[in-house]
Structure formats: C-alpha cells, structure tokens
Specification:
Layout lengths: L12 H8 L1 H32 L1 H5 L4 E4 L12 E2 H5 L7 E15 L6 E9 L13 H6 L5 E5 L9 H6 L6 E4 L2 E9 L10 E5 H7 L7 E2 L1 E6 L5 H12 L4 E4 H14 L2 H31 L1 H9 L4 H38 L7 H22 L13
Parallel strand pairs: 4-8, 5-7
Antiparallel strand pairs: 1-10, 1-11, 2-9, 3-4, 3-10, 5-8, 6-7
Helix pairs in contact: 1-12, 2-9, 2-10, 2-12, 2-13, 10-13, 12-13
Length: about 400
Amino acid sequence: MIKVAFLRPRIPLAWLQLTREKVRLLVALAGISFSGILMFMQLGFQDGLFESAIRFHVALQGDIFLVSPQSNALIAMDNFSQRRLFQALNIEGVAEISPIYLNFALWKNPENSRTRGIFVIGLDPDANILNLPGLTPDNLSQIKQDDVVLFDRDSRAEFGAVAQWIEQEGREISTEVGGHRIRVGGLFQMGATFGADGTIIVSERTFLNIFQQRRRGIIEAGLIRLQPGVDPQPVIARLKQMMGSDLLVFSKDEFVEFERRYWAESTAIGFIFSLGTIMGFVVGIIIVYQILYTDVTDHLAEYATLKAMGYTDLYLLGVVFQEAITLALLGYIPAFSLALILYELTRNATLLPISMTTERAVFIFVLIVVMCFISGGIAVRRLRSADPADIF
C-alpha cells in the first residue's frame, strides 16, 4: 500500500509570535488603529477646510479675476473702484466683465430673532457667473426685485429652517439683514465654510440697500471672461502691466490657490492639523515599538537558539520586520473603516465637505507602514544581545 503524505503548510514565525499573546496583539492593533484614525481625522478636517474655503471660487464662471492687494481671503476682502475693472475691456480678447460685491451682515433668525453673521454676495442676476445648484435663470430673476435674496439651503441651522419652511410649508420668509428688511425669494446650495456659516445672494441694488454706507461702484472682486479660444496668459500679462501694484491679477487656478494658501499658511489652522497628524504618527511609533520590543525581549532565548543553529542576524531582522508589516496591515483596516463612519458623522454635523479620498487612504496606509517599520528598526537593536553563549 502506498501512503500519500500531505505536507502541512508552513506558518510564518512572525505570525506565530504575534498570535501567541493575543491580548498583546489586540492592544497593538488598537494602538495602531487609534493612531491611524487620528491621522485620518486631522487630514480629513484639513482638506475639508480647504475644500469649503474654495467652494465660492470654484463655482465662479470666469477666466481672470481682479482683487485688491490688501485682500487676504474671502472673509477679509478689501475693495477697489469698478473703474479699474472697466479698463479691462480695452484689452483684445476680453469678452465681458462682472463686478462682485462681498461682505458680512447680521441675519435675524425669523423664528427667534437671534442674529448671526451671514456672508452676502452681490452680483448681476443676468451675468450667470456662479455655477451652483439652484441658481437657475428663473431663480436668479427673483433677485432683480429690490430687497429679495436667495438663501443657501446648506447654511447652518442657527439661521433658521428657511429651506424647510419654503419647500415643505410654502411659507414666505421675511426677515432683516444688516437691519434692512428683506424677503427670501428662493434657495440655492453652496454650503457652510470655516469662514461663513451661511450665505445669501443679492443684486447690486439690494446689496447697497443693506450696506448703505457703501458707494456704488466700489467692489471686492472683478470677474473677466475671455472670448472663446483666447489664451488667458497674454491677457493676464497685459492686465498686470495695466494695473501695476494697484490690483492683483489672477487666473482662476491662481485665485483658488490664493484662498487655499491663506488658510494653509497664514492661519494657525493648517499648522494645528499638520501637528495633529505628526503627533498621531509619533504616538503610533511609540506604541508599536513597545509591543515589538517586548516581543523580542520575551523571545530572546529563542533568538539566541536560532543563532546557535546557524540562522543569521539578517533572518532574525526579517522576522521582526514581518511582524511590523503584519501589524500595519491589520491595524489599518479598522482605522480606515472607523474613519469612514466618523467622516459621515462629521459631515452631517458640520456640513463640511469631509470625505474619504483615494489619495488620503493610500497616504495614511503608507504612513502606518513606515511607522511600523521605524518601530521595528528601533526594536531590533535588542537582538544584538541575543548571544548563543547565553543558552549554555
């Protein structure tokens, strides 16, 4: 009779060592997951801040933008004379221009009369310069009437349930903005930002009615559209020469980056989120190092035995690094899953555009792998004391 022998598959030594102390393994995975979640949330908040800050800029339908050199960001825009914007019409390739008025005013909640600062955008209803859900020609025609505004349905709840009252109850909403009586003529969708909890869109005349101290023709930004097929760079160069140091001239991408750079570099917010990410990385290194160091110490005699049997230091180092990569893979899965849940909860609570991206998921995975490898690299120093002579 011929007997068939089945070879038992070899189980990696690194996996056997990790699973031998199951409680220790769970503690290690919990620590790695906590570190990963911390990094996911910090980068998620940071990207959500940047995305919310540039919503308005991305929605603008223009090729070139003029702003005052004293302007820092959308929440801190200085104004300039609209006459400078009109000068752009003298440049070949310019099709049309549109002035943009920007400011903050106190909105009175029509339900409880509490006031809260709201972002006010003044524009020409016929220009169609914003690409946002709800800004249809019929809706924009509403603000041609004096003291009629369009309300951002994604504004925070502190402004009142305006969207619900209009859509579900059919109520006509009247309230005050900057002490001036207005009526809500329709809704659009943009969303709250770190700088503005709510937004309304008005015509130029209504804007000047709300801000009675302002003079007509004093604007915060100028939008320029070019004729089809015109290269914007020569026009931008000509405008910079024409405007000199009086105005900043941006392409659309530069205008978006102007806002993003303010939040990233000119405020403490970008630094705080970056520091939080670094702290999560360092905490993870410490946790994984303690686990691997303890594991190496507990099996020091076994490592010495392997050396006596002829196994090289390189092999033993490979075992420790296998443990590190295994911990990284197992710890990343719950961190990624919990981050998805927390992103959803945060998005619903704050209305900020926080979501998982492929780039961030890959970046955090790489960070966790590097974190575990650094911990393994520190822990393997303990192997130097694994002397075969110690076991005799």
